[in-house]
Write a structure and sequence with these properties.
Layout: E1 2-4, E2 7-9, H1 12-15, H2 22-25, H3 41-54, H4 60-69, E3 73-74, E4 80-81, E5 84-85, E6 89-90, E7 93-95, E8 101-103, H5 104-110, H6 120-124, E9 127-131, E10 136-140, H7 147-156, H8 160-163, H9 165-172, H10 174-190
Parallel strand pairs: 2-10
Antiparallel strand pairs: 1-2, 3-4, 5-6, 7-8, 9-10
Helix pairs in contact: 9-10
Length: about 190
């Protein structure tokens, strides 16, 4: 573990390799699991605001889930998260012609209809952030559905932190990321 400002960063971000392989997994992280995507308070307000622009991209099941549950929900332990369709798919999931899961929010963003890409937790995946009172833990979330992404990352020699660079900068800022990069370079030299 490394301390970086008010974060504790797992060495796995530097040592493990990862590149999403959507052609292999078909976006399983958006349709498997037992909870929606983690959100923070500010993101719940954004979802409420942009829902009218995102709605045309959604599947009927997603619209039904959101209109029944809301644009966001509180999970079993009070966490803020995206609603699910029948306790499975994220309500914001759509599918392309190859049956790959995509994000309706990101599609609206890509078409210039909203200025918010998607929840930062989705953008960061496979990195998960757990906030504590004094610091945030920044961890690599290893999940068997991402085995193909690990293989591709190893083949391409892309560490987790480099794969999620844009999301880490979005979450913590460029200076934080630059410091992480320095830590990674020093860590690599010591091995």
């Amino acid at each position: 573990m490394f301390q970086l400002g008010k974060t504790i960063v797992s060495e796995d971000l530097i040592e493990k390799e990862f590149v999403c392989n959507l052609s292999a997994c078909k976006g399983a992280c958006c349709i498997d699991g037992d909870a929606g995507a983690p959100l923070d308070e500010e993101e719940t307000k954004i979802l409420e605001k942009i829902y009218p622009q995102v709605k045309p991209f959604l599947r009927k099941e997603g619209i039904d889930a959101i209109e029944k549950q809301g644009t966001w929900i509180k999970g079993d332990f009070g966490e803020l998260e995206t609603p699910l369709i029948n306790d499975a798919d994220c309500a914001y999931v759509i599918f392309d012609e190859k049956n790959t899961a995509l994000c309706a929010i990101e599609e609206a963003y890509n078409q210039g209809l909203v200025d918010w890409k998607k929840p930062v937790s989705c953008h960061l995946y496979p990195v998960r952030i757990k906030d504590y009172s004094e610091f945030s833990a920044v961890n690599y979330d290893k999940w068997e559905i991402c085995d193909d992404a690990c293989s591709l990352g190893k083949e391409l020699q892309v560490p987790v932190y480099k794969f999620v660079k844009q999301a880490l900068v979005r979450k913590f800022g460029q200076n934080w990321y630059d410091e992480l990069e320095k830590l990674a370079e020093n860590h690599k030299k010591k091995q």
